[in-house]
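To: structure subgroup
Subject: Chain for Friday's discussion

All,

I'm putting the inputs and outputs inline so they're searchable in the archive.
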Amino acid sequence: MEVKSLIDIDFSMLMECFLKAFKGYFVKMPTDHEYYKERWRMANVKLAMSYGMFKNEKLVGFIINAIDERNGNWIAFNTGTGVLPEYRGQHIVSSIYQYAIPDLKKHGITKCRLEVIKDNAIAIKVYERIGFKITKNYKCYNGNITLKEAFTDFELKKVDDSYYDWNTLNQENYSWDNQFNTVERGSYNYYVIYINGKMDSYFIINPNNGYLAQFNTLNNSLDIDSWNVLFNGIKLVSDTIKVNNVDERLIGKIHFLNKIGLQNTVDQYEMEFDIY
């Protein structure tokens, strides 16, 4: 078997291996090829710095990396790792990383990062053996917004991304797919909420599927009234929402998501490995 870059791979071959590798996964994966083309474009996937294990030119395992500069580091974000069922137990992911890390270093990458479902104990052990360490705990939610208090004394304003002062909105609180670098490449609508003429909160949402990429109050993150107003505004745009990877350290945000009846669907770790 041989490890090499995915730069020349046929997309249909990659997707065939990807979908077989994720069959029966902890969460149901979309099967539409166009979904992955768009998602990986937004994440800034670079197949030249993504890698596969091949046996007689057949792809049997892969690591798909998005590449971007985040907070002063050039990061290879692993947006998908998989091995065909019949080839598992052969240390393929470790072998791919053994090949990949020197190549990534040569291209100026200083960190590898990934997300892994907490119940996926086998994958976590593999990543830890490679050298990855847990850096964040995430919770994912979806469902209908259920509010006990209806607020109407606010102004909901649709804006564009240039309206926000991104220097004041901490992107480190968000995961790779929810940070502005990724979101700005996607099909999102941007909103701000004003109370008494003052901007109080904001949110960024995909109007087609209710995916909430970013949302926050701008004053006191534990202020229940601000969270109520914010979700009253979100509900005007979409009754049903999906929220991935909320950092567990954001106590006010987590508390309110639980309060409005959303379902906690899955929990994840963010893990990192420094390339020296």
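Points worth raising on Friday:
Residues 151 and 229 are 6 Å apart (CA to CA).
The mean pLDDT is 94.

D.
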